[in-house]
Amino acid sequence: MEDNLVLEGLEVVYHKPDTLTEAPFHYCPGCGHGVAHRLIMEVVEEMGIEEQTIGIAPVGCSVFAYHYMKIDMQEAAHGRACAVATGVKRLLPEKYVFTYQGDGDLAAIGTAETIHTVNRGENLAIFFINNAIYGMTGGQMAPTSLCHQVTSTSPYGREEKAMGFPLKMTELVAHLPGAYYVTRQAVHTPNAVRKCKKAIRNAFEYQKENKGTCFVEIVSNCPSGWRLTPLDSQKWLEENMLPMYKLGDIKLPGKD
Fold this sequence. Notes:
By secondary structure, this protein is an alpha/beta fold. 36% of the residues lie in helices and 18% in strands. It has a single domain (6-251), classed as Thiamin diphosphate (ThDP)-binding fold, Pyr/PP domains (Rossmann fold, 3-Layer(aba) Sandwich), CATH 3.40.50.
């Protein structure tokens, strides 16, 4: 895109990256998945690594990422994205490899794959969308659902004594020696989007150093699963999600 391009008297400030396909997003209005897709593909385009990047998408709302990302994509079984990504990266170590996973996938059925991939320090990036619910399958309680949060399987709210506490995967993996870069970002405001894009760029850049796993959590909303309007879901995220899942870098290269 040329800087300061003017079209009919208006300055073009954004254009869809060529690394996104022409397929319209199927995500619900207000969902953060579309923004996360765009940011990842913008970074891939800006780095000029379209031909060197491979994405792994498992079951969940993320499963259709290969419809939108114009790069090599591989679908994985539910929870197995990190295992598939490990195989891809070991076979093709010169490639940029990432997983794109939701919380129901990464923090539930895929917990073991996630933990052991990071513990081994596999040289890949994990992009983790946390909306505190199972979005695709009917709004069930996820490991990341908040205490007292109402879901289709916790109609009276999540009870800690019976159901445990919300699982903070990002803090958990940050303690593992194989974790190189660990951060939690969001996509609910323009400023948050800018910070999230920088974190995604870092995760790709750090793969060049071959020193461990990069883990980027993206706190997002799920208007349909939360039974809220897109606007109300943004407010609910700020008032409920962010106090539990605080944004910022948790582990930086060279710092424990």
